[in-house]
């Protein structure tokens, strides 16, 4: 406890953050410079506490020569927190309003960006199965972090999550038996193979990789809130270019696109509290 208070009282200077991010980018190719500074600093303070460091810059030489330490730093900056049917009211809306509209596209390609350990990807897969659309849909799930993608592919979580996630599923309007989507193991639950069939996990960095694919639906929740404004705009442009005309974009309900009309005229806001957008049918080439 004393240690925690000690590190909580530490201040990290911008110059220290800049040096660490520069080293991370030069040595490992991860560019976190456009991330929102306040939350970045909070996570760097946690790292200082974890490694019991007086100064953030002490982490730089350790991280440069020890890849495991670098991976710890990367993991702590790219937080994978997620849940099945997280924010059930959003899923209830998707179930009722968006999935039936997606059904009008001959093929349904979904890009789920920032997938963490995969709970959101498999929630989408369940929704598409329940709507009878799984056979003609494909979910491309991307994340910057290869360790998270590896876990997401496995599709296993601790058993203790079953009840809270079942509760979310029911609140989202799910009428099935949530436990039936999983094989129960000793202390864990594993998603059944048929919900994995239309789900693919690929490494992709929203900072410097290009448009992923043409898709009808982009889901990127609780990722943009970690980014600074410039990077948010860059990523929303990427999503807009990736979307087919008339396609949909869903962000986290605590996120929103600033200066939408000015920066992203091809997107129209459908619902502010849900943060759901649609790409207009217009034929202008700017995004
Ligand atoms: C808080 S999780 C969100 C998980 C899920 N979308 C949800 O809302 O439940 C944020 C995810 O974004 C990923 N991420 C962070 N920066 C990224 C980047 N530059 N490119 C791709 N993914 C990134 C992290 O690795 C992490 O898995």
Task: Name the features.
single chain; 287 residues; alpha/beta; Rossmann fold; seven-stranded mixed β-sheet; three-stranded antiparallel β-sheet; 11 helices; 10 strands; 41% helix; globular; disordered N terminus; binds S-adenosylmethionine
Question: How would you describe this protein?
Answer:
By secondary structure, the protein is an alpha/beta fold. The protein folds into two domains: 2-77; 88-279, 3-Layer(aba) Sandwich (Rossmann fold). 41% of the residues lie in helices and 18% in strands. It has eleven helices and ten strands. The chain has helices spanning 2-8, 14-28, 37-51, 59-65, 67-77, 88-102, 119-130, 146-154, 162-171, 229-242, 260-263; strands at residues 108-113, 137-143, 156-158, 182-184, 188-191, 199-203, 215-220, 243-251, 267-271, 276-279. Strands 6-2-1-7-8-10-9 form a seven-stranded mixed sheet. It has a three-stranded antiparallel sheet with strand order 3-5-4. Helix 1 packs antiparallel against helix 3 and helix 6 crosses helix 9. Residues 1-5 have low confidence and may be disordered. S-adenosylmethionine (SAM) binds at residues 78-82, 86, 114, 116, 120, 143-145, 148, 205-207, 221-223, 252.
Give the structure's gist in a few sentences.
Helices cover 41% and strands 18% of the residues.
Computed structural class: alpha/beta
In whole angstroms, how far apart are the ends? 50 Å
- Give the topology string: H per helix, E per strand: HHHHHHEHEHEHEEEEHEHEE
User: Rough shape?
Assistant: globular
What is the overall pLDDT average?
Answer: 94
Spatially, the strands of the biggest sheet line up as 6-2-1-7-8-10-9
The largest sheet, given as strand count, sense and whether it forms a barrel, is: 7 strands, mixed
Subunit organisation of the chains: single chain
Calculate Rg over CA atoms: 20 Å
Strand content: 15-25%
Number of domains: 2
Helix content: 40-55%
CATH overall fold name of the largest domain? Rossmann fold
Number of helical segments with 4 or more residues: 11
Q: What name goes with the CATH superfamily of the largest domain?
A: Vaccinia Virus protein VP39
The residue ranges in which pLDDT falls below 50 over 5 or more consecutive positions are: 1-5
């Amino acid at each position: 406890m004393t240690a925690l208070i000690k590190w909580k009282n530490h201040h990290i200077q911008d110059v220290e953050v800049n040096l660490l991010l520069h080293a991370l980018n030069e040595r490992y190719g991860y560019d976190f410079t456009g991330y929102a500074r306040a939350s970045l600093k909070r996570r760097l303070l946690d790292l200082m506490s974890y490694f019991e460091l007086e100064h953030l810059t002490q982490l730089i030489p350790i991280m440069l020569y020890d890849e495991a330490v670098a991976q710890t730093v990367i993991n702590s900056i790219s937080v994978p927190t997620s849940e099945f049917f997280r924010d059930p009211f959003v899923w209830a809306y998707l179930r009722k309003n968006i999935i039936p509209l997606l059904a009008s596209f001959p093929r349904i390609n979904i890009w789920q960006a920032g997938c963490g350990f995969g709970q959101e990807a498999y929630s989408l897969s369940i929704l598409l199965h329940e709507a009878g659309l799984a056979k003609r849909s494909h979910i491309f799930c991307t994340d910057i972090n290869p360790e998270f993608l590896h876990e997401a592919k496995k599709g296993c979580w601790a058993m203790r999550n079953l009840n809270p996630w079942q509760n979310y599923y029911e609140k989202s309007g799910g009428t099935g038996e949530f436990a039936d989507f999983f094989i129960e193991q000793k202390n864990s639950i594993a998603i059944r193979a048929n919900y994995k069939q239309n789900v693919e996990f690929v490494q992709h960095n929203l900072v410097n990789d290009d448009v992923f694919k043409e898709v009808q639906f982009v889901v990127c929740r609780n990722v943009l809130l970690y980014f600074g404004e410039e990077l948010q705009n860059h990523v929303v442009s990427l999503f807009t270019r990736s979307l087919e005309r008339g396609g949909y974009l869903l962000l986290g309900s605590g996120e929103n696109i600033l200066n939408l009309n000015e920066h992203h005229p091809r997107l129209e806001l459908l619902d502010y509290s849900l943060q759901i957008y649609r790409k207009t049918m217009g034929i202008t080439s700017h995004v």
